[in-house]
Every structure is written in structure tokens, then in C-alpha cells.
Specification:
Blueprint: E1 2-9, H1 13-29, E2 33-41, H2 53-66, E3 70-73, H3 79-89, E4 92-95, H4 96-107, H5 111-129, H6 132-136, H7 148-187, E5 192-200, H8 206-214, E6 231-238, E7 241-247, H9 257-262, H10 264-272, E8 275-281, H11 287-300, E9 308-313, E10 337-340, H12 349-367
Length: 368
């Protein structure tokens, strides 16, 4: 997939550049590559094309000259904008939502995740059906009648609506089952159960930390959204306290609204957590901005007030020895508890477990 990336440049030039670089990584995750960027300085998106009409012609010429197969916009395009752009440029047009949904559809393994992704894709597709039927109907049909294109679109629209309802009912059943499982898990025996959720920007090393904490095998790869399925494992940190550690899907800036809605069954684990481990890639120069993105999503999930431990991961990319961790100053930027670790090397895990234990004692004190 040879692609040209397009974005509007606002006041935050650094943020715009970081967003484009992230988009480039998403394309790479699909096996494609970026031929180049086209940006336009514009304060507000054009309602018809997102970019200006003159810029659309420039994009068309560049795409034709470079042999680009796809033009990817660093935005969420409206259905009419996407249709207008494809018609004007003569190439496949994708936006951020299209890219993320395509990655998710290729990577999912569990039944729950497949349902969630299908729901997101259908929710994304439904409004984009309108208008396509009228173009197709030029193939036939008279005054006051529907052409074959419109008929086909209407059939597809009805099927999508029915399927969306079916998936929502299935996901609600899964949520009910998970709630029952949690109740049984928590009531079994006399052990105190503490639920810990790993959250963080995609590729921060959550799966590596999950494996380091619990010994459970997890897919670890240097790419966005390497793992999409929620996994939970248990660990004893006190003789009488069991900690359930849950890994969740990584976050990105400009996460498609359809995904936040459809992944409630997965992100519910964050809402149910007693403690959140916010995993941060300390070797990423943009880590502070990504922390803000994760905090905003936690706020959307009504989970911003939960006890948080900031886990600065990948310290081995900055220092050569575990004892040098104490010289790293990044935790000073965060309010609350912070721990520096390397999940890959096993550095700092004792300190992390002690921080979790301290939080558990705080929780127990609050309950008493």
C-alpha cells in the first residue's frame, strides 16, 4: 500500500508532526509505506474536501506522479468528504479511523475482540452508504423509482443495522458473563482480591510488563496494537492477597470514536480496576504528550480518579545498569507514585511490587 499522507497544519506544529509520524507507523503496521507528506496551513477543515479545492488538485497530481495507491488523511473524515475526495483524486482515500479499524480487523483473535471490531467497522460504514446508492443508480431506474444502486445500498443498510443490534446483544451477554465471573472469582475462598489494570499508549511495553509480573506468555512486538485481546492473570504479593493483573488495548491520540464505543467490553476492565498501572515508554521523547492522551481517555471512561502508579518502562534503552535507574529524572514530572523499570531486563520489578503493595494497604485502610 503506497500512500501519501495529508494533514492540516494548525498552531501546534510539533503535535502535527508527531501525529503524522504516528500515522506513518500505522501504515507500516498494515504492511504499507509512506511516499511523503502533504500539509496545508488552514485553521478550519473545508466542509466539502477537508482541505481546500486547490490542495485537492495538488494531491491528485502528486498521487498520479508518484504512483500512490492510497491517500491517507490524518483526521476523521465525514462520509461526504471521503466520497468527494475519492471522486476528485481518483485514488482510494482513508482516514485515521479506516487505518486503525483495518489493523484491528487483521490482529484480533478472540471471539469478543472480533465482535468488537466488527461492530466498530459496521458503525463506521453505515453513514458512508448514503450517497453511494444514488451514484450507482445512474445505471438504471426512472423518475420516481429507485435504481439498482440505491436498492443494493438499502439492502446493505438494513443488514448492517440488524447485524449491529445482534452484536450489541452478544456483547452485552459477554459483559454479563464477565461480571458473574468476577463475582465468583472474588467470592471464592477467603482471599482478598485486588484488580490491577495495565493501561498506556500503544507500544509502551504493557505486554512485556504483563509477562514479567505474572509469567504469562504474551505477544510482544515493536509495533502499534501488537495485542488487542484483554488477558487477566493472578499473582500473590501477600500470603493473603491475590492480585489480578489485566492487560488492555493500547491507546493512541485521535482514537476513533467507534472503537471507544465498541470496546467498552474490554475497557470495562479499566473501570472495574482497583489500581491502574499507567505504563510509559521512558525512552520516547514525546512521553509526556502521550501521558496526556491516556489521561484524557481515562477521563472519558470515568476512571481518572482511580489510584494510579506511573510505571516508566524501557529504562534499559537509556541506562546500561539497573543501579543507574535512580538517576533518571522523568518521575519528577508526575504527581503521585512513580517507578522506573525495564520489563525486558527485570529491573525495578521489586520496587514496582512494593508500590502495588503500598497502594493495596492504602485501599484496605480506606475500606476499614
Amino acid at each position: 500500500m503506497k500512500s501519501i499522507l495529508v494533514s492540516l497544519s494548525g498552531a501546534g506544529k510539533q503535535e502535527d508532526r508527531e501525529s503524522l509520524e504516528e500515522l506513518k507507523e500505522l501504515i507500516k503496521a498494515l504492511g504499507g509505506y509512506c511516499l511523503g507528506y502533504i500539509t496545508q496551513k488552514k485553521s478550519h477543515p473545508d466542509p466539502k474536501y477537508y482541505v481546500g479545492a486547490g490542495k485537492v488538485e495538488e494531491i491528485r497530481q502528486v498521487a498520479e506522479g508518484t504512483g500512490a495507491e492510497t491517500v491517507v488523511f490524518d483526521a476523521f473524515l465525514s462520509p461526504s468528504q471521503a466520497a468527494n475526495l475519492e471522486k476528485a483524486i481518483g485514488r482510494r482515500v482513508m482516514d485515521r479511523a479506516d487505518l486503525v479499524l483495518e489493523i484491528f480487523s487483521r490482529r484480533v483473535r478472540s471471539k469478543t475482540a472480533r465482535l468488537q471490531v466488527e461492530l466498530a467497522k459496521l458503525t463506521h460504514e453505515l453513514p458512508r452508504l448514503y450517497g453511494r446508492g444514488k451514484e450507482l443508480s445512474r445505471l438504471g431506474g426512472g423518475v420516481g423509482t429507485r435504481g439498482p444502486g440505491e436498492q443494493e445500498t438499502e439492502i446493505r443498510r438494513r443488514w448492517i443495522k440488524k447485524r449491529i443490534q445482534q452484536i450489541r446483544e452478544e456483547l452485552e451477554d459477554i459483559r454479563r458473563q464477565r461480571r458473574e465471573q468476577r463475582k465468583r472469582r472474588e467470592s471464592s475462598g477467603e482471599l482478598k482480591v485486588v484488580k490491577v489494570a495495565l493501561v498506556g499508549y500503544t507500544n509502551a511495553g504493557k505486554s512485556s510488563l504483563m509477562r514479567a509480573l505474572t509469567g504469562r506468555e504474551a505477544l510482544v512486538a515493536d509495533m502499534p496494537f501488537a495485542t488487542l485481546d484483554t488477558t487477566t492473570s493472578a499473582r500473590f504479593i501477600f500470603p493473603d492477597i491475590k492480585v489480578l493483573v489485566t492487560d488492555t488495548v493500547g491507546f493512541i491520540r485521535k482514537l476513533p470514536p467507534e472503537l471507544i464505543e465498541s470496546f467498552k467490553a474490554t475497557l470495562e476492565e479499566v473501570q472495574e480496576a482497583d489500581i491502574i498501572l499507567h505504563v510509559i515508554d521512558i525512552s520516547d521523547k514525546d512521553w509526556l504528550e502521550k501521558v496526556k492522551v491516556v489521561k484524557e481517555i481515562l477521563k472519558d471512561l470515568s476512571a481518572e480518579d482511580k489510584p494510579v502508579i506511573y510505571v516508566f518502562n524501557k529504562a534499559d534503552k537509556i541506562v546500561e545498569r539497573e543501579e543507574d535507574i535512580r538517576h533518571l529524572t522523568e518521575p519528577a514530572f508526575m504527581e503521585g507514585t512513580s517507578v522506573v523499570i525495564s520489563a525486558l531486563k527485570g529491573w525495578g520489578l521489586k520496587e514496582l511490587l512494593k508500590a502495588v503493595r503500598d497502594k493495596v494497604e492504602e485501599l484496605q485502610g480506606a475500606i476499614r
